[in-house]
Amino acid sequence: MSIRGLSTETTFRSAYRGVLIALVTMSLVVNILALTGSIYMMQVYDRVLSSHSMTTLVALSVLAAAMYVCQMLLEVLRARVMRRVGDRMDARLMPLAQQAAMRLPLAGVSGVNALQPVRDVDSVRGYLSGQGPIAFFDLPWIPIYLIFATALHPILGIMTLAGVIILIGLTLLSERLMRDRSTKVLQMSQRRQAMADENARNAEAAQVMGFADRARDRFLRQSDEMLLVSAKASDTGNALASLSRVFRMMLQSAMLGMGAYLTIKGEVTGGAIIAGSIVASRALAPVELAIGNWRGFSEARHARARLADVFDRVLRETDLTELPAPKSTLRVEGVTVLAPGTRTRVLDGITFELSAGQGLGVIGPSGAGKSTLARAIIGAWNPAAGSVRVDGATLDQWGRETLGRHIGYVPQDVQLFDGTVAENICRFESEPDTEAIIKAAVAANVHQLILRLPQGYDTRIGSDGSHLSAGQRQRVALARALYRDPFLVVLDEPNSNLDAEGEAALIEAVRAVRERGGVVVMIAHRSNALTAVDQVAIINGGRLSAFGPRDEVLRKVLRGAPGGPMGGAAPPDPPGTQQSVQPVPATAGAAAGPVTLILRNPDGKQT
Ligand code: ATP
Predict the structure, then answer these.
(1) In the chain, what are the helix, strand and coil shares in percent, each to the nearest 5?
(2) pLDDT digits (tens, 9 = 90+) for 182-194
(3) Distance linking the first and last C-alpha atoms of the chain
(4) 270-292 helix and 36-43 helix, angle to the nearest 10 degrees
(5) pLDDT digits (tens, 9 = 90+) for 290-319
(6) For residue 591, how far is its CA from the centre of ligand 1 (angstroms)?
(7) What is the pTM assigned to this prediction?
(8) C-alpha to C-alpha distance for 166 and 248, rounded to whole angstroms
(9) Ligand 1 proximal residues by C-beta, below 6 Å
(10) Which site among 36, 98, 439, 458 is 20 to 30 Å from 195 CA-CA?
């Protein structure tokens, strides 16, 4: 099993081993150079002041200046390397994060939350490119300062060590206090973001029906709650950062005091007083830096753990043997589907088979599970039991990319992308086949309509295809479904926004797919579309209550419809009459009972 040939561990560790060694080495030199101040102080006090030698002072100053410059250059270089590590990490992880973000909605994770992997990569990159990680490269070199302080006097060494231990204790406390709070802040901020997103998407309804203010207030309540929790987390972090800063200053003064005491007792020289104080402060600096950046570190660490988890869950794929293009059957075997994140059965033991050239119309009342069946057939939702087989192979034996080439799908909400008409039809292929694009558009009878757009096939259609009308969107989506003649074409209410001409084109397109040996599954609310299919399935309460040749099934259903207008006959309506077919349970609550076919006229009257 692999994530596109990249194991998660590889992603996070081995790729950076060489860089890590370079950073640790650079940090060693930086930390040795950081002793410059202490050594210079000591030499000035102990040598220059006692000897009054200007030459020594100048020589020491030049040497110290050179060492400071080296330290500065190395620190700049180290920060640049860290930024590059952040960028490289981004370049490796962002494609996976984007891929995960597009798979999570299929697992029932809603829009904004599905973007968390992308935000997590941002968070890891942001942390790596900042000052935070520097602390971790400096921490291993604290012993350099401890040795230096001990060499000045063992008591000064012990005091520095005690200071380091106390500050590390504070860091661990910080970790304990911040862990749960950061998770809570993240969850609340996700909820807030989801609400803002929903308000923006549904602004039209909220404005015209006068509940925009209430929608805004709902958002503000969520926002206030999040800010409160976030403020508590910040307060804790800031308090610990201040405590560590003050503690460092106290230790510095204590080192001065102890140095003075030891000087008076004649155990150290005057220069050691200042040198000890500086070195103690320098020893504590990485710990203090770590505390100051603990929140960022904690967030990045959680982000990294979430990424590893989501990549393993959502992107892990078995290396698959490429199968030949399907050409004979679609088999649905005892498929049971649970609603995402619940134990509720939305589909229960559905079984049927379709052969090349057959077209199935799926009808049933609202919420019966028709769209769920479509999603199960194309592999968007995994069945909890049973399987879907194309030419005998279960969907997971095909692999997403390969299967996608053999599937055409028009979802109920169409789902177009911000790009040109041509890009949408060819599914954003990097090397699109212009002939195939036009063929698909002609097959969907949308070619002339596209030519009438301002830039024809090169017209940008806006986010979600917002520059097109609902009917135009549906027809472009049909062309995308027909691109490169896929074997399996699944259409979820493809005629809901079509006029008579569009519906006639749809019927023709379905016939053409069947004639070339494809299989069509079409969910239909309006009976006109059933003209193009030879099989009908009725889904009721998640179960298959009827399946078979179209006329036979409709005749049976209509016979069971007392006073039904069509008597024993089951002719689909001629295109353009705009009736709707809605089988509903004869008995409320019956899971798979008989169905009544209600036909509605365009004016909504039940006939
Ligand atoms: P319609 O004709 O109104 O489109 P449908 O027959 O296509 O209805 P589905 O969309 O398949 O119905 O929904 C079947 C059931 O699954 C419904 O009860 C619905 O509440 C539930 N359901 C659908 N999507 C989800 C989801 N993402 N999370 C939880 N439940 C869901």
Answers:
(1) 60, 15, 25
(2) 778 878 888 898 8
(3) 57
(4) 160
(5) 877 877 888 888 888 889 888 888 777 666
(6) 15
(7) 0.70
(8) 10
(9) 108, 339-340, 346, 364, 366-372, 412
(10) 98
